[in-house]
Design goal:
12% of the residues lie in helices and 41% in strands. The protein is mainly beta. It has three domains: 34-62 and 390-472, no CATH class; 72-168, Immunoglobulin-like, CATH 2.60.40; 174-367, Jelly Rolls, CATH 2.60.120. The longest helix has 31 residues, at 2-32.
């Protein structure tokens, strides 16, 4: 009996050994033979590069995309008021009061999303150096409930402004050059006109253009040759006008077609000498007839510069004017232009109304943003000061405080924010940091599958000896 038991035991060991050998062999085949020498070299170079970033202080990069590693010393949380519905790519107006830690010209302002990492596009509408700035920021998502915060960074004396309205608004007319920017065009309907750009001012003229009341509407328009869908707000700053006839009209239009056509779903917010003020005109008759327009006149006297605004909300259009671009007065009431369509052209225009008359208007600004009611605003909170970069999530700044001495605080922060490593394009990886006795950081894949590349580096973790291991597949 004892001999039989011994034989069965030996046989079991042999069978078990064969199974283990087969499994190991298959693992080697699967995970070792399917990667070429070229891929191995590239992956090893990439892994070594990432290890250097994480464990060496290479100074501050000069690219805003890596702003967390640069010299912004101050920041403030901005709490965004929530709307009745979820908003996407919403433009928000922020009023920034000058802080002595800022550059006098506000050139060091930058904005980041809720994660304090992702930069947000912004544009400074107006400013008084050393006093205040009106800034527009485009926010990817604003929830209908809960909380939404973005962050304003400043306190970097060598930074230059990177504000760009083209990255913020649905449509933005850049008047910084000497010509209409790319994508913008001038169209003459019926009578000739001009559109020139100089010193930040757009001047539009037209000679002899007939009034909108007639069957042939004649005017000069400047617009981006692209329709806008959905609800929107169009804002312009009018710096002056020279219209020789009292019923001449100049301002903003929303219309189905930029051409003479009765069935045009047109509404316009204008400045006109007739009232020394503003008016909202719109088409309200069938296209079968000659399509006249109605109007709602503003009773206030307009001095230039002045702001005008045209709002499209569903089928309704309303007109507004303002002396400062912040406090708005509605002109008349919201109207429904006859035949208005889902996709609209928004133009700046002038028409002198009668033969022989001339019309001219000057604009210093024009932009279109997404409509929301109420419009979200931002409340700027108290100032935070950077201390040894501890309030930055760990990213390109690495884990070091000084040379190759890793910070326990940064290791702790990264442990709580492993997703930040995706900024390096990491997918299949494992990052581990040990001090002399314990595993103190683990990010990435938890698997028994052998890694294709393993890079190990011995480091100091404050006063402890440790090592960092980065594995890649």
């Amino acid at each position: 009996m004892h001999g039989q038991t011994r034989i069965e035991f030996i046989f079991g060991i042999v069978v078990f050994s064969i199974i283990i050998f087969y499994i190991v062999n298959q693992i080697n085949i699967i995970f070792s033979s399917n990667i070429s020498d070229y891929e191995t070299s590239n992956l090893k170079a990439e892994t070594n590069s990432l290890m250097e970033i994480l464990t060496n202080d290479k100074g501050y990069p000069n690219n805003w995309n890596d702003f967390l590693g640069q010299g912004w010393l101050k920041r403030r949380e901005i709490q965004i008021t929530l709307s009745s519905k979820e908003l996407f790519n919403q433009q928000v107006r922020i009023n920034v009061t000058y802080d002595s830690d800022m550059k006098v010209d506000f050139g060091d302002l930058r904005f980041a999303d809720s994660n304090k990492v992702s930069g947000l596009p912004y544009w400074i509408e107006k400013k008084v150096d050393g006093s205040y700035a009106v800034v527009w920021v485009r926010i990817p998502k604003i929830p209908a409930s809960g909380k939404k915060s973005i962050y304003m960074y400043y306190g970097y004396p060598t930074a230059q402004s990177e504000g760009n309205g083209n990255n913020v608004f649905i449509q933005f007319l850049d008047l910084s050059g000497n010509f209409l920017p790319s994508g913008w065009t001038r169209t003459d309907i019926g009578k000739s006109g001009t559109a020139t750009v100089s010193n930040g001012i757009l001047t539009i003229t037209n000679t002899g253009g007939a009034n909108v009341y007639g069957s042939t509407y004649e005017a000069t328009h400047v617009y981006k040759n692209l329709t806008i869908s959905g609800d929107f707000v169009a804002v312009a700053n009018v710096t002056g006008q020279k219209n020789t006839h009292e019923w001449a009209k100049a301002g903003i239009t929303v219309q189905n077609y930029v051409k003479a056509r009765n069935y045009n779903g047109m509404a316009m917010m204008i400045t006109t000498p007739a009232w020394n003020g503003c008016a909202l005109f719109w088409m309200d008759e069938s296209y079968i007839d000659i399509a006249p327009a109605d109007y709602e006149a503003d009773s206030g006297y307009v001095t230039f510069p002045t702001y005008i605004k045209l709002v499209r909300n569903n089928t309704y259009v309303s007109g507004w004017n303002s002396t400062n671009g912040k406090d708005w007065n509605q002109v008349g009431y919201a109207v429904v232009p006859y035949g208005i369509e889902d996709f609209q052209y928004v133009t700046l225009f002038v028409t002198p109304r009668v033969t022989g008359a001339t019309g001219e208007i000057n604009f210093s600004m024009f932009y279109v943003y997404q409509y929301a009611s109420p419009e979200p605003t931002g409340i700027i909170k108290s100032e935070e000061t950077r201390t040894n970069e501890s309030w930055y999530p760990v990213r390109t700044i690495g884990l070091v405080e000084d040379k190759s001495i890793l910070s326990k605080n940064k290791i702790r922060v990264l442990n709580e924010n492993c997703d930040l490593l995706k900024n390096f394009g990491l997918n299949n990886y494992r990052l581990k940091v040990y001090n002399s006795t314990n595993l103190i950081l683990f990010c990435g894949t938890d698997t028994l599958r052998p890694a294709k590349i393993v890079v190990n580096k011995y480091v100091l973790i404050e006063n402890d000896v440790g090592n960092v291991t980065l594995e890649m597949w």
